[in-house]
Structure formats: C-alpha cells, structure tokens
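During the reporting period, we have paired protein sequences with backbone structure tokens. One record among many follows, to show the layout:
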Amino acid sequence: MSEIDQFGLGETSVDEIEGAEQESRARRSGPIQAMRSAWANVNVWRVATIATMIAVALLFSWTRGPIEQFQISDPVKNGFVEPRDFAGIINKLESSVVTVFCDVSEEQASQGTAFAVNLESYTDKGITALMTNHHVIEDCINQGTLTIRNYDGKIFDAVLENYDAENDLALLSADVEMEYLDLADYPPSPGYWVMSFGSPEGVEGSIAIGNVLNITTDNEILITAALSLGNSGGPLVDNEGNVFGVSTAISTTELSQYNIVGSLDRFCAVILECDGKDYWDWN
C-alpha cells in the first residue's frame, strides 16, 4: 500500500498526476499570465507602438485645424471676426473719445460724443483735432460755448474749426494732447464686426457691438449695433480699433432694426482734402 493510499486518497496513476499538474499550471497562469505572455511578444509591441503613433497623428490633425483657422481669422485679414485684443481697443477708445457739450443757456444745451483724429494740419485753434456730428454743435456755431470732457472727468474748452451741415460732420479742436484713433484704410463690407463707443445719455464709455448690414449710396453704414441719444459724433470702429465712420442717427420706426453711421467717404466733401470724392478706393 502506498503512502497516498494510507491517507485515504486511494491509488493515483502517473497519467492522473500529469493531468493534475497541467491543470494546476493552467490555473496559476490564468488571464494575467496570458497577458504577460502576450506583451512579451515582440509583434504585439510593434502593433501597440504603431497604434500609438497613429493616435498622436490624428490628435495633431484634429487640433491643427482649429489652430490654422484661428491664424486665418486674424483681424488684420478678416473683418468678420471678433478682436484679438478687445481690452486694448477699449483702453485706446477711452483715451481718445470725449463727451461734447454745447451750452447756449441754462434752458438750451446739447450733448454728444467726439473722438481725436490725426488732422493737425486742418486745425488752427487747438492742439488736438476732434470729429463729431454737425447736429451736436449746431446751436453753438455763432453762440454759446463748446466744451469736452475726457474719460478722466477733466473738462476743456473746444472750438469749432470747420463743419459740413449736409453730411452732418464737424471738426473741433482743443488745447489738450490726446491719443488719436486711426482711420480705416479699407471700406467696410456687409457682415463685418463693428463696435460703437460714446456717451449715450451722458453715460461715458458705453459700447455696443454688432455687424455691418450694408452701405448705401449716400455713404451711410447701416449697422446692428445699438445707438442712443448722445452717441452722435462717436466713432464706429472695426476689429482692430480703426474708425469706419461717425455715429449719426438711430432708427425711428418700430420696424427698423438698424442704425446709421456716416462713412469716412463723407469726410471728403468738406472736411478733408481727398484724392477724388471718396476716402476709400472702392476699386
């Protein structure tokens, strides 16, 4: 009798012992051992490496599209997109835009907006040239006093240098140094991003954002940006802060969904000396 039989296990053949050992090895190996064996295979590593490289290439391709689109959407080349440096434009406007007051008497006064432009050769009475609307200063052409107030709340006397009643423009000047706004060297197109800046109802530094709807044969830029009383004379700027025109009128009917800005082409009638009747080369 064998020792195994002494313990009540009965006799075991050699085949049974070998089968038990194989079953035991299979249990010990299990899925983990199978995984280790698979990763030990050189071909599997190659496949995994290739798959990783493909995944990285796809990720780069997917992200490069938006990056290239962002570069293409540079405001310098695309007037339809929003500004890259919105805060920078606002800071410049705050330094260049003023509130205009025309005081004739305690009962008769008007208020609007003006902005500094680089037109020193057109001014004789002050350091800084300022553009605004004719209707803002109309009552003070032969009477009353003109003053401006900057964003810091400082008040300065202003004088009338020239005006164009037909195109609703006026050129003022003041003895104060100010940063001037650049005039856009290209015309606006329908859909362009634009922003108005001014003092509606005397609330200085107010902005309104919209788009160009169209440009009329009367050199009017129709915009969706909101304008209110007091915005008159303020600048309409593009996505780089360059001036397209002067905010002039608001819609007066319930069906109207646009406001009116006098384009830079209007400057050439009286205010500026231009090559031809238009400021922009429409060709």
Q: What stands out?
A: The two ends are 115 Å apart (CA to CA).
